[in-house]
Design goal:
The protein is α/β, with parallel strands linked by helices. The chain is about 30% helix and about 25% strand. Strands 3-2-1-4-5-7-6 form a seven-stranded mixed sheet, with helices on both faces. The longest helix is centred in the middle third of the chain and has 14 residues. The radius of gyration is 16 Å and the shape is globular. The chain binds S-adenosyl-L-homocysteine.
Length: about 200
Amino acid sequence: MKLLRVLPLSKELLRQTVEAGEIVIDATAGNGNDTEFLAEHVGENGHVFAFDIQQQALDSTYNRLSSLNERVTLILDSHANVQKYITGEVGGAMFNLGYLPYGEDLSIITEPDSTIKAVERILGMLKVGGIVTITVYDGHIGGDIERDALLDFVKNLHQRDVHVIRYELINQRKNPPFLIALEKMRSFTTPRRVE
Ligand code: SAH
């Protein structure tokens, strides 16, 4: 295989582990790129729940999806509240952290506490063998704080419960994103942490 860039690799991981007909989550809808990919991949019997705290992002996602909107539920709420909206097993999930590109207010960013809460809750809902991808941007104000808190959280997840990888192109300039991917290894509602 070729060395994929971060976003293509995140999609490839989901492509290989999510089956048609499953329920999946786009935790940060943004402009809808991942929502569109996931909706195409799960097919007409699958469903995507896409979260964003900005109406502008959900509008942008809605406009991008056209007929795929039938397989997507857009939710104007924090991904930390994911359990209010989804019951049952989830086949996979994607996060794309940071601010909304081309958004009106670039100071609205994903925050450490809600990001970590959402990752932990989604891991609980995930099927065994399912993957959560997190594309991490740390070049904006506050991005470094979120990055460090998230790395601290995922590094201490118990290896029997979750396998965690970090992937990045290390000779790229200008704050490129890096990828964290988590694979659920056994059934649990809350992953154990190593103290
Ligand atoms: N940095 C990426 C895009 C990130 S978009 C890029 O350059 O392509 C991140 C989205 O997450 C934004 O639209 C933002 O509104 C949304 N967001 C921020 N906090 C959130 C939360 N708690 N729950 C769900 N979405 C959130």
